[in-house]
Model the fold of this input.
Amino acid sequence: MRIGILALQGAFIEHEKILEKLGVESFEIRQKKDIEGQMDGIIIPGGESTVIGKLLRELDILEDLKNMINDGMPVFGTCAGMIILADKIENDEKVHIGTMDITVKRNAYGRQLGSFYSEENFDNIGKVPMTFIRAPYITECGPKARAIATCNGNIVAAVQDNQMVTSFHPELNDSLLVHKYFVEEICK
Done:
């Protein structure tokens, strides 16, 4: 298995380290030619969704990624990655890839000082550590998407066919459970 990690900005190295611990090969996607090789899935990391979206457009990668996802390429978006995949953003008019039937609220927990840690149930794997940093959350799952984790009454993870998103950063904890779920359940 080989997973491409969008490495334009944000916490991509941490995802590489988690995948390495799982024995999964990964590579960085920094330009258009990087998505032309063989891969079994893509991770869109946390960071600044506005910057990531802008760079995807400038590098002419956005439409190709969107087509790949629509054609069934497994994708996992964390925090800003969730915003990039959402087809509706409550407090932002600009939609980026927009392949997932969810509505998200950017910076839903506030600014940097609103960052926090929790342990909550995650569908089919039990309690997982969740680190939230200027995190969004899902205000609504459309009929195609399904919530798989909540925190404080808010949806913080969802799946839709070949797509999975979390508003928290599983790559910032020692647990391998969420990435393992992506590799075994979404990339299968």
